[in-house]
Amino acid sequence: MKNIDSYTHLRGESLFVDDMSVTHDTLFGLTFDSPKAHGKIVSVDYSKAEQVSGVVRIFTYKDVPGVNQIGGIIPDEPLWAEDEVHFWGQPIAFIVAESEVIAKKARLLIEIEIAELPVITTAKEAKAKGSFINAPRSFEMGDTQKSFANCEHIFEGETFSNGQEHLYLETQGCYAVPLENGNIKITSSTQGPTFVQKITAQVLGVAMHKIEVDVIRLGGGFGGKEDQATPWAVMAAVAVSHLKKPVKYILNRHDDLRMTGKRHPYESFYKIGLDEDLKIQAFEVEFLQNSGAAADLSPAIAERTLFHATNSYFIPNVATTVISCKTNLPPNTAFRGFGGPQGMFVIESAIARVAHELGIDKSVLQEKNLLQENDQFSYGQIATQVEAKNSWNSVKQNFEYDILKAKVAQFNIENELFKKGISLMPITFGISFTNTPMNHARALVHIYQDGSVGVSTGAVEMGQSVNTKMLQVAAHTLGIAPEKVKLESTNTTRVANTSPTAASATADLNGKAVQKACNALIGRLTTVASNMLNVAESEIRFVDNVVKVDSEELTWEEIVAQAMLERVALTENAHYATPIIHFDKTKEKGHPFAYHVYGTALTEVTVDCLRGTYEIDAVSIVHDFGNSMNIGIDIGQVEGALAQGIGWMTMEEIAYGTDGRLLSNALSTYKVPDVFSAPKKINVRPLTTGGHDLAILKSKAVGEPPLMYGIGAYFAIQEAVIAFNSNYKPKFHSPFTPEKVLKGLYE
Ligand code: MTE
Ligand code: LUZ
Ligand code: MOS
Question: What is the 191 CA–ligand 3 centroid distance (Å)?
Answer without folding.
Answer: 9
